[in-house]
Amino acid sequence: MIPRRMAATMLAAGVALGASAQSSPEAEIAKYREALAAGNPAELWEARGEDLWKQKRGPKNASLEACDLGKGAGVVKGAYAEMPRYFADADRVMDLETRLAHCMVTLQGFRFEDATKRVFGAGTNRSDFESLAAWITSEARGTTMNVALAHPKEREAYQLGEKMFYFRGGPHDFACATCHGESSKRIRLQDLPNLTEKAGAQLAYTTWPAYRVSQGELRTFQWRLNDCYRQQRFPDLKFASDASIALTTFLARNANGAAFNAPAIKR
Amino acid sequence: MADPMRIRAAERDGVVNVKILMSHEMETGQRKDASGKIVPAHFISKVTATHQGKTVLSAQWGTAVAKNPFLEFNFKGGKKGEKIAVTWEDNKGETRTDETTIN
Fold first, then answer.
1. Which residues have CB under 8 Å from A144's CB, separation 6+?
2. Interchain CB distance below 8 Å, B70 and A39
3. Ordered structural domains, chain B, with CATH
4. A interface mutation test: which of B23, B45, B46, B74 has the most A CBs within 10 A?
5. Residue B4 preceded by cis peptide, ω within 30
6. Contacts of A13 in chain B (CB under 8 A)
7. Does residue A176 carry a catalytic annotation?
8. What is the distance between the alpha carbons of residues B19 and B71, in angstroms, rounded to a whole number?
9. Does the beta carbon of B31 lie under 8 angstroms from any beta carbon of chain A?
10. Best interface-test mutation with B: which of A1, A2, A5 has the largest number of B CBs within 10 A?
C-alpha cells in the first residue's frame, strides 16, 4: 500500500509546506499538527458519536442515554477523566470502550460478539466505538485526570498493569518499558515518550483518542495499546480484556493531575 | 449518504472566517487493496460556498487533497445571523450541502 500524503490537507487549508529540508521531522510534524489543530477531523467522529449515543438501536430498540459511565446514568461530562473505574453492576473494573460494550449488551440487547465485531474502523466501515469514544472523551476536555483507585479491584488492576508494563517477553524480549522507559529516544522517525516519568505519562495519556493523520482515522486508547502490542511482537491484545483494562488503568492513573486534552491529532 | 460537514462561520470587523470539515475518503486511485487491486479514485472535485445565495468561494479539487479535508477561508461583507451554505460534489456525482449561521 502506498502511504497517504501527509501534507495534502494543507493545500486545502491554503498553507504552504515549504521545502525546509534542514528542519527536523519532529519540527515539521509539530508545524503540521498546529496547522491542523483548528480543523481536527476528529470532530467528524465526535458528531457521529453524539448521534449514536442518542439513537435507539439493537434488539431492545434503546439508546445509550441511560448508560452509566461512572458518574450516574447518562452523565457524560467529565466521565472519561475518572476512567477506568470499578462498576458494581458488572463487578469489574472497566475502561470506556469496555463499558460501552457493556451498555450495548445490557441496554440495547446486542450480543457482546455482535457489538464488538468492528472495534477499529477502516474507511467507510466505521466503528461505533471510535465515534462514541470521540464524543465522550471530547466531553472531558479540560477536566483534570482523576483515577481514584478507591476500590480494591481498581488497585489490583493498577498493580497488574504496572507488572505488565515491565514484563519482558516475546521474540525480542521487549517490555513496554524497553521502548518507553528512557527519555529522548526514538525509533525510526518517531519520538518514544518516556511513560515512566510523570510529564511523559501525562502527555501521552491525555492526548488519546486521536485522529491519526497517516491513517485518516480516529483511534482510541484500546487501539493504541493494540498497536504497541504488535510493535512488541506480543499476541493480539484482546479488546475489553482484563489485560487491556489493567494497562489502561496503570497509564491513566499515572496521568492524574493533568488536564485531559483529547481527541487530539497525531501524525 | 455522506456524513454532514462541520461548518463554523464567525464575523469580526466585517470579515467572516469560515472553517469547514468534510467527511470524505478522497481516494487517489493510486492505492492497492490487500488483494492487489487498485482502489478506484473517489474524491471531491468541486466545492462551492454561498453567502445569502451568492457564491463567495468556488474551487476545483483533485486527488492531492487529504482524506477528511479541512478548508478555511475569509470573505468580506457577511453579517451575524446570515447564512452560509457549502456544497461539495465528487467524481462519482455524489453531493452534499450543509449550512450554518454566521455568529
1. A81, A256, A257, A258, A259, A260
2. yes
3. 6-31+38-101 (2.60.40.10)
4. B23
5. no
6. 70-72
7. no
8. 6
9. yes
10. A5
Count how many residues are written for chain A.
267
- pLDDT (tens digit per residue) in A2-15: 344 433 343 344 33
User: What's the mean per-residue pLDDT of chain A?
Assistant: 90
What Rg value do the Cα atoms of chain A yield, rounded? 19
Domain A42-266 falls under CATH 1.10.760.10: yes
Between CA A75 and CA A72 the distance in angstroms is 6
Phi and psi torsions of A85, nearest 5°: -150, 165
The contacts found for A73-81 with CB under 8 angstroms, 24 or more apart, are A76/A135, A76/A136, A76/A139, A77/A139, A77/A140, A78/A139, A78/A140, A78/A143, A79/A136, A79/A139, A79/A140, A80/A136, A80/A137, A80/A139, A80/A140, A80/A143, A80/A260, A81/A140, A81/A143, A81/A144, A81/A145, A81/A146, A81/A260
For the stretch B8-49, pLDDT in tens is 999 999 999 999 999 999 999 999 988 999 999 999 999 999
CB-count burial class (<10 Å; 0-12, 13-18, 19+) for A161: buried
Nearest residue of chain A to residue B32 (CA atoms): A1
Q: Closest partner residue to B67 among A2, A4, A38, by Cβ?
A: A4
Q: Which residues of B touch A124 (CB under 8 A)?
A: 25
Contact at CB, A8 and B68, closer than 8 angstroms = no
> How do the domains of chain A map onto residue ranges?
4-37, 42-266
Residue B4: closest CA among chain A residues belongs to which residue?
A44
Complex prediction ipTM: 0.83
